[in-house]
Amino acid sequence: MGILQRGDKVAVVAASGVVNIDAVLDGIEVLRAWGLIVSDDQQWAAEWGSLAGADSRRISRLQEALDDPEIKAIFLARGGYGLTRIIDRVDWAKFIDHPKWVIGFSDVTTLHTCINNIGFASIHGPMVAQFNKKELEVSISQLKGMLFYDEVPMLKGDIKEEYSDREITGTMVGGNLCMIADQIGTYSELDIEDKILFLEEVGEKPYQVDRMMTRLKRSGDLNKVKAIIMGQFSMVPDEERPFPLTVKQIIKEKVDVPVITGVTCGHEYPNTPIILGGQYTIKCIDDKALIEYASNL
User: Fold this and answer.
1) Of 16, 139, 201, 267, which residue is the catalytic one?
2) 60: CATH
3) 106, 122, 139, 188: the active-site residue
4) Is the pLDDT of residue 24 over 70?
5) Is 52 exposed, middle or buried (0-12, 13-18, 19+ CB in 10 A)?
6) Radius of gyration of the chain from Cα atoms?
7) Domain count of the chain?
8) Are residues 274 and 162 in the same domain?
9) Is residue 3 part of a domain?
10) 267 classed as catalytic
């Protein structure tokens, strides 16, 4: 997968929740302003209850985009829910022959895990229906820089001083915690051995985060990671009787490796794009961590 160029053909795919048509059209205009060619077919505009069309329709459009050698990148329209309903039907053979960037987050974690597991990189970042949000202008500009100029932004976070002067290099994988936990025991279970694990979440109570992290730990997977990067854990609901640990404490309790917090990736603004399946180096200086991109797999 190389950098994009003006005139490249890309696909907008709605593989999860039903989309806001006006928001997606605004996002497509951004892509066209970048010089990319986007189809006018609006196959992403279907609706089947809360989903962007029936399962058969969504998998058909996703498979077409993955298979087409002329398409250089797939931009997911939005997240929500729906990819786990169709992921087992995806045939990766033609994608392996003609890999391309797949961009999105949240429910799109299901795609990221599969792509990273077969040895390719993907981009965790803003989705097309968000491209009209002023709060994401910087993040979208960074996404364009990644795609067109191979300019990957540095991430910054906080870390315990006991890890000061430590340097950690590894492949970053991960995404939405709920989706990662949901795939344990399936063919698309994320391989996190010797990896840097990135996690983000939205709308989950602390006890729910604890349940998912406990499932990861009981599976044995958490014992294999080099470090954990905590993105945004957003919109945490209040509890009538609070769980005894905060979200940060829950995650730190589960591992004996460095946990970097305060990283601006997830469901809030900004949503700094990152390359999942890419090599990163974490440099710990006092109580701060600099997370620098090195290369793809």
Assistant:
1) 267
2) 3.40.50.10740
3) 106
4) yes
5) buried
6) 18
7) 2
8) yes
9) no
10) yes
pLDDT digit string, tens, across residues 248-263: 999 999 999 999 999 9
Active site residue 189: no
Question: In DSSP terms, which residues pair with 230 in a beta bridge?
Answer: 199
3-class state of residue 224 by DSSP? helix
pLDDT of 221 strictly over 90: no
Judge whether 102 lies within some domain. yes
C-alpha angle with apex 56: 114 to 96, nearest 5 degrees? 30
The last residue of one of the domains, among 115, 149, 183, is 149
Exactly one of 112, 188, 200, 204 is catalytic; which is it?
200
CA distance 113 to 103: 13
Per-residue pLDDT tens for 74-121?
999 999 999 999 999 999 999 999 999 999 999 999 999 999 999 999
- Residue 56 annotated among the catalytic residues of the structure: no
Q: Per the confidence metrics, is the pTM higher than 0.85? A: yes
pLDDT value at residue 296: 61
Backbone angles phi, psi at 143, to 5 degrees: -60, -45
